[in-house]
Amino acid sequence: xxxxxxxxxxxxxxxxxxxxxxxxxxxxxxxxxxxxxxxxxxxxxxxxxxxxxxxxxxxxxxxxxxxxxxxxxxxxxxxxxxxxxxxxxxxxxxxxxxxxxxxxxxxxxxxxxxxxxxxxxxxxxxxxxxxxxxxxxxxxxxxxxxxxxxxxxxxxxxxxxxxxxxxxxxxxxxxxxxxxxxxxxxxxxxxxxxxxxxxxxxxxxxxxxxxxxxxxxxxxxxxxxxxxxxxxxxxxxxxxxxxxxxxxxxxxxxxxxxxxxxxx
Length: 264
Prior knowledge:
The chain is α+β, with helices and mostly antiparallel strands. The chain has helices spanning 62-76, 134-147, 184-190, 206-217, 221-229, 239-261; strands at 23-28, 38-42, 47-51, 84-89, 107-113, 118-121, 155-158, 164-167. The strands form two sheets. Strands 1-2-3-5-4 form a five-stranded antiparallel sheet, with helices on one face.
């Protein structure tokens, strides 16, 4: 069984040199939600919802790292997460206020690509299972929610693609749930605790359950190391906290796979 000490020293030399996606122009200010996402056009021509260190509540900047890691490990197991990326706020945009009195600073933020027409739902149970390939996509939601100790579950349904489902807005995942970050003691205390969705299991794809469970069983430490090492050094999380998170995910994956198989 993997030990926390096995991760010692695996996170190092984190950097802030990401320039593959730049914020080009704000489109709309932040609404009233906890993390303050604002809509902006990026250098690839797409619109994104952007969360920055300036829009998150004071002391909750680690929620950006939660957003980044949960989306990345979701892709690792084939969970239906939105297209996400780091995004650089350049000097030309610095000073724009997504909220009155909250100017943006130069630096790295987290971006989630916008859907043109989406039905956004909070915690009502997973819907539209018979539409599109949601019987498969829902399996990934169950897996990701349990693996990353989900909280404040949020779903998007793409109205232009037969209500294809996405899991998004993961900033309050990880223990302690709902806090916009994590602590090493809470990771240790929660490492073996189930965090399962209570939604009914009928109609899930049995093939997808087998596939996602097998992927969880085969999670590779090197992939997790790569993900946590890409968290920008300017974000307020320490290397040892990221090492503990990597350990938590590696340790937890086989039990999550077992619980996923038990859905049927």
